């Protein structure tokens, strides 16, 4: 761990930002939490925290999205079109780079969580994994060979359209797609469908079968990308509903129907809860910073 | 081109194998076609062709699948479970490596085609693309940063389950999934559904709307992986049915419904036919060989 670089990590969240100065989970030197308000105010507060730290070799930022991760694009390093008031087209990376003059890594919060879980958490030792968060939205982070899977943009696989269980014709609540996986299985969708918040919905409520089926379709698709050696599922809907894990896994296996007959996919440890809890975000930011340093 | 290494490429297909000695499309030194029969006979014939060549620095193999591309797996470099008689669990790479003692690159035919189209064809200059073949099956090759997107295995996204147009309840003909994209939109599915082979089906036949819708769902999913800057669609069903391209693209745009509002995705050149024709396979093998040489 002493060999790992000292990195300033920023988890930029919708309601709060976690700033952390660390080399890894066992060598955290400082941690500061800042509320997410208007961009100018929030970013100034983050910069003030970082200015009080010294010795970090790089900075990593794991952000809510959508963000521009295309290094050749004019808007690289910014938040693009978000419903969050004031944050659309907010430059993050170039501002931070100018201020601190060290390499800056930048990716989604879910890719950060994937990196952290693959390095220190529930997928330790695996270089190819998917991290799925099921909360107010559904996000997917993909890493392959220990690096984010990047191309035109970041994954948004929570918005695929799943086939439905016969007789389930609820239209869903995604403003774009209605019944995409997020529009059927995220926390607000469960609340809209049942009138009850997910954390208060009893395990034997029939809506859980529909949620497990939709999430099973998402996992079917993730397996068919060929990438994940393990799928880590976190977020408010998964955490505290441990009955959901075996049901989602069974729905995935049922849907794959024997296709991709690799032993890994059949194991119960193929679909697991995160191990790092609230630390996945900030530790993911540390890894994004470390990767930026390697890139130079 | 003179700087590119001389590579022996093998496109291992279901009915024939193309062996090619080349540095690229403008410097093909030899090309030999061999029928695909039993594994021992076919591989011996390939080895005989390669033994007659000299000066190649590496070998690339673009193969029909499914194949094991996991370098840490015991069965790396082999064809795994194929319905093709005699070919299941056939080692390819280790046998060729032992015989010729040069680095061997190995991937699917569709990843080979993606590499070739990105280097010399319809996606020239783009490092992040998807190649989709719609023929007797539906295969997807994904490359990011100019390299295959690898993890546990190769992509098999032709087997995702698409939502259906209201009233379309044909069960599909995939032996695993019934109505997955392959089971609804591949050549044999079109023939089973309509009683007419795809190449004889008139452009105004209503089945084409159902096929375009299913392929549009596949492209919706590919966009949401975040990877492709362009999608190249080849294979017997796409080639010769040029009316299908605008319909598939429209179905994709309709399904995405304004999500991922990147200009690239809205352009007609986002979904294009291949430019290399039958040469994509052998030239993809050349690139797999060149990448194996870089890896050492």
TrEMBL record, chains A, B:
It catalyses: D-fructose + ATP = D-fructose 6-phosphate + ADP + H(+). GO terms for molecular function: ATP binding; fructokinase activity; metal ion binding. Its EC number is 2.7.1.4. It comes from the Bacteria. Its cofactor is Mg(2+). InterPro entries: ATPase_NBD, Carb_Metab_Reg_Kinase/Isom, ROK, ROK_cs. Pfam families: ROK. It is an enzyme of class 2 (transferase). Gene3D superfamilies: 3.30.420.40. Keywords: ATP-binding, Carbohydrate metabolism, Kinase, Magnesium, Metal-binding, Nucleotide-binding, Transferase, Zinc. Belongs to the ROK (NagC/XylR) family. This is fructokinase. It comes from Sphingomonas oligophenolica.
């Amino acid at each position: 761990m002493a060999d790992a670089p000292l990195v300033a990590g920023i988890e930029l969240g919708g309601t709060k930002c976690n700033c952390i100065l660390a080399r890894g989970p066992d060598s955290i030197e400082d941690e500061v939490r800042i509320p997410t308000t208007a961009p100018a105010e929030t970013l100034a507060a983050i910069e003030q925290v970082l200015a009080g730290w010294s010795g970090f070799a790089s900075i990593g930022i794991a952000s809510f999205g959508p963000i521009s991760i295309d290094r050749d694009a004019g808007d690289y390093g910014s938040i693009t079109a978000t419903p969050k008031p004031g944050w659309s087209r907010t430059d993050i990376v170039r501002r931070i780079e100018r201020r601190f003059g060290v390499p800056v890594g930048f990716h989604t919060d879910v890719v950060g969580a994937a990196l952290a879980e693959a390095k220190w958490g529930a997928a330790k030792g695996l270089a190819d994994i998917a991290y799925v968060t099921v909360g107010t939205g559904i996000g997917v982070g993909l890493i392959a060979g220990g690096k984010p899977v990047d191309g035109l943009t970041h994954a948004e696989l929570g918005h695929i359209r799943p086939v439905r269980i016969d007789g389930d014709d609820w239209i869903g609540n995604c403003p774009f797609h209605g019944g995409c996986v997020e529009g059927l299985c995220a926390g607000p969708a469960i609340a809209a469908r049942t009138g009850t918040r997910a954390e208060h919905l009893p395990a034997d409520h029939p809506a859980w079968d529909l949620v497990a089926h939709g999430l099973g379709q998402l996992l079917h698709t993730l397996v068919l990308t060929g990438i994940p050696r393990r799928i880590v599922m976190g977020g408010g809907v998964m955490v505290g509903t441990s009955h959901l894990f075996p049901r989602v896994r069974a729905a995935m296996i049922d849907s794959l129907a024997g296709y991709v007959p690799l032993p890994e996919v059949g194991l119960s440890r193929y679909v697991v809860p995160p191990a790092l809890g609230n630390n996945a975000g900030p530790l993911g930011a540390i890894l994004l910073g470390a990767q930026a340093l390697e890139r130079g």
